[in-house]
Design a protein that fits this description.
Oligomer: single chain
InterPro entries: Leu-rich_rpt, Leu-rich_rpt_Cys-con_subtyp, LRR_dom_sf
Strand content: 15-25%
Protein name: F-box protein SKIP19
Distance between the termini: 25 Å
CATH class: Alpha Beta
Order of helices and strands: HEHEHEHEHEHEHE
Helix content: 25-40%
CATH topology: Leucine-rich repeat, LRR (right-handed beta-alpha superhelix)
Pfam families: LRR_6 (PF13516)
Organism: Prunus yedoensis var. nudiflora
Shape: globular
Length: 186
Amino acid sequence: MCRRAVDRSCGNLVDINIQHKCTDDLLKYITDSSKGIKRLQLDNCFNITNEGLSEVASKLPLLEELEISNSLLSHEPALQVVGASCPRLKSFKFNHHWRYSWDWRESNDDALAIAATMHDLHHLQLRGNKLTNDGLQAILDGCPHLKSLDLRECFHLKLGGELGRRCAERIKKLQLPHEPISKDES
């Protein structure tokens, strides 16, 4: 069904939202068929690999908004490729849920990849990420245009002191780790 919708767009697809059924092959088909995609949302697409996302990233130079929620990507390598390949990216949502994670160890890999390659972000949502204060500091340094930052369920963060003040002063819409996520948002 998704392939038919892509075919009917005659190469003019700008916005696509895929839930559950996306694979590397389908993602490649979409990006081979549509060169003007500005918004891509992948939700619960557990069959997309780092290699698959990395391969298609170069075909998304006009991408402005990317959402990847609840995936099995090992993150950092693919995020660096996405950041380097999508210079117009303004909004990035990369969400996970702690309750589904079997590995709760701290990791700043995602944060460092974002900070190193996504300098023009205005909106960043990292729900359920395992970043620490060091990762958040890197994001604030590497993404100077951030206006909104959603850190809900990022339970390794300790936002007191200077880092908390910096976030509060700089970010217009800041959502903190322990703020609730409504059913409409999840």
